[in-house]
Amino acid sequence: MKRYHVLGVTLLAGFILGASIPAHAIDAKFRAKLEHSGCTQVTEANGTCDPNKTKAQNRKAQRPTTRLDKAASEAESVINTPISSAAERLLQLGWKPNNGQWYKNGHILRLVVEDDVIVNAQLVK
To answer: Where are the domains of the chain?
Structure first.
């Protein structure tokens, strides 16, 4: 019985020691490469970011590709801006206002405004 107790204590000690040693998923060289490229492990793994490119190259490659992506990007660009600046920007981007909503390429943009600042933008297809 004492033998099983010693074995259990030894296994428990080994488990605790193993759990306390930090595990490094990536080495310092690869971590530096990710930082230089602006990538994360997730974006590198899903193919939306190339760690062999610079941050600027990756940012350029991530530009919106569909009309919906572009509309969503434009909607996000006016959040936390004064309504007057946002309206000017949306007009420059080709959005057309009508009864408190904005229209472009079959999309409808609804702005949520508090204290003359846009706090949310809802895009409807």
So the answer is: 24-63, 67-124
Residue 85: which pLDDT band, with cuts at 50, 70 and 90?
very high
pLDDT digits (tens, 9 = 90+) for 13-23: 566 655 555 55
Which are the contacts of 109, defined by CB distance < 8 A and separation ≥ 6? 71, 74, 75, 90, 95, 101, 102, 103, 121, 122, 123, 124
Is 100 strand, coil or helix? Answer: coil
What's the whole-model pTM score?
0.50
Distance (Å, whole) CA 78 – CA 119: 9
Q: Which residue has the tokens 């992506």?
A: 69
